Amino acid sequence: MTQQRKINWKNILTYVAFVGPALLFFIVIQIIPFLMGVFYSFTSWNGVSSAVEWVGFENYVKIFTNDPAFLKSFLFTTKFMFAAVIISNLIGFGLALLLNAALKTRNLLRTIFFIPNVIGGLLLGFIWQFIFVRGFASVGKVTDLAFFKQAWLGDENTAFWGIVIVFAWQISGYMMIIYIAALQGVDHSLLEAARIDGASNWTLLTKIIIPLILPAFTICFFLTISMAFKIFDLNISLTGGGPFNSTQSVAINIYQEAFQNNRYGLGTAKSILFFFIVAIFTTVQVMITKNKEVEA
What we know:
It is built from 13 helices and no strands. The chain is mostly helical.
């Protein structure tokens, strides 16, 4: 009995030694700040003074009744999310299909397509700002093409698509790696058997390949939805939310509310609300795609 008790304590101490530090950091860095944010969302704290006034649900009521800027930023972010998720995954999956073939330069091309994901969002945004403002203007003068002569970041519609283009350019390489890993797990004997039976390439793709790699779609959709919803650095470096706040994401709206307007309580209320919205979207997406996996 004593020996068994010693073995159990040894196992517990081993688990604590390995899991304890990570769990401690997670609690200190994630859980405690989140709980503090929930508390401050019920106050009118300005983020500076020591006086914290409890206002209950006043901040949340204000968001829904007297804050059109937040609603506008949420509609923009949702619209951006749908466009960015579809385009990023189409490009990522297309590149994966291309680079899963027996190309001599496929490893080099994989590296090239993945590199944009390594570049920081702010730096990437400033690079593409130069391309849109200076580069496109120069090409437009030489070619006289209307596509390049547009005020890409100065118009509401083109600025929206400019952000989508840069986001897709940055993140598609990351999605490509996930899709390639899934494609390499597909049994080639199934594909060969289907080809012998006369299946076309489209049939192979839609009836065999895609159903077999649906878990990869679940992961990629989850990642792109969460990243698109939380876009901040690309948005602020490309347009700063302009022109006239037409491309202001929810993250920028929260940042301005808390740190520029010094309404930390209202800003944290928006962030908590936004957290639950993103959680609902991603949970529904995972449930839908998981059900498709089971059906397949």
